[in-house]
């Protein structure tokens, strides 16, 4: 039986390397360095195609996920990780490359690319519009089911029903009956279900309007701009991989096209 190689002697003061260990030290050090280099290369290979993005839940559901397949077609090797959350994510601590936020200008330490703003306006299904005979000439919302959204966003310029009715001289009771949602809902699903009139952002309602599932019962003129804007955020000075740069550029081009599409819809 081969004699066992002893590398340390245990004593009252701790582990002491033997002469054999001291002779092997240069080669062991080299060996560990090679292992570290290989592990580093494997880690780089694993993350080089990663794009980690955090974005608001409703925006992810109603806008972003309907468009991301286009990026996949162009970049089939991408390891895309989407975090749909209304929690304010720390990009560094939580390991995200980008955030898409509906927000005011960001704090120091973050680079921001402006994507687009938003406009708030009433939407409903075609059937709901016809049932209640809604049109641009309607001057009262009394008796019409209204969907109320509490704490929809911290944006101080996001309009509620009281603001909208005052702006366009429409008689309406802000405390009228109807479905009431709180905090995270855009109300879009309630509108699609025919539950009532919803004041919704054009960004999230756009696809449903173009697809015919929703209509603008009072036309495009009775809309109110918001204060916050959608922005693509990243940590200042961050170096991006090629695929992360392609994702950033893709989002920018997507935003340009969307702004044009919304302008054509609202301005005619």
Automatic annotation (TrEMBL):
The residues covered by the LysR substrate-binding domain are 49-253
| Annotated GO biological process | DNA-templated transcription
Q: Name one Pfam family in it.
A: LysR_substrate
Query: What one GO molecular function would you report for this record?
Result: DNA-binding transcription factor activity
Which InterPro entries did the record assign? LysR-type_TF_proteobact-type, LysR_subst-bd
What PANTHER family does UniProt report for this protein, alphabetically?
A: HTH-TYPE TRANSCRIPTIONAL REGULATOR, HTH-TYPE TRANSCRIPTIONAL REGULATOR TRPI
Give the family from UniProt. Answer: Belongs to the LysR transcriptional regulatory family.
Please give the name of this protein.
Answer: LysR substrate-binding domain-containing protein
């Amino acid at each position: 039986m081969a004699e066992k190689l002893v590398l340390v002697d245990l004593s009252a003061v701790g582990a002491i390397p033997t002469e054999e260990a001291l002779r092997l030290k240069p080669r062991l050090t080299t060996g560990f360095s090679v292992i570290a280099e290989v592990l580093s290369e494997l880690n780089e290979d694993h993350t080089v195609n990663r794009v980690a993005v955090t974005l608001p839940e409703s925006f992810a559901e109603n806008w972003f996920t309907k468009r991301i397949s286009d990026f996949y077609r162009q970049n089939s090797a991408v390891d895309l990780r989407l975090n749909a959350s209304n929690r304010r994510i720390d990009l560094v601590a939580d390991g995200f490359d980008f955030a898409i936020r509906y927000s005011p200008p960001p704090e120091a330490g973050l680079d921001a690319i402006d994507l687009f703003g938003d406009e708030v306006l009433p939407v409903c299904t075609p059937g709901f519009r016809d049932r209640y005979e809604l049109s641009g000439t309607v001057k009262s919302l009394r008796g019409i089911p209204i969907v109320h959204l509490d704490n929809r966003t911290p944006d101080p310029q996001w309009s509620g029903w009281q603001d909208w009715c005052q702006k366009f001289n429409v008689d309406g009771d802000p405390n009228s009956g109807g479905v009431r949602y709180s905090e995270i809902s855009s109300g879009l699903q309630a509108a699609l279900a025919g539950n009532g009139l919803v004041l919704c952002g054009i960004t999230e309602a756009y696809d449903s309007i173009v697809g015919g599932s929703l209509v603008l019962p009072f036309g495009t003129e009775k809309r109110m701009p918001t204060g916050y804007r959608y922005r693509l955020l990243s940590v200042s000075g961050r170096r991006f991989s090629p695929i992360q740069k392609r994702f950033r550029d893709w989002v920018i081009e997507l935003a340009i096209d969307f702004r044009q599409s919304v302008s054509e819809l609202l301005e005619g």
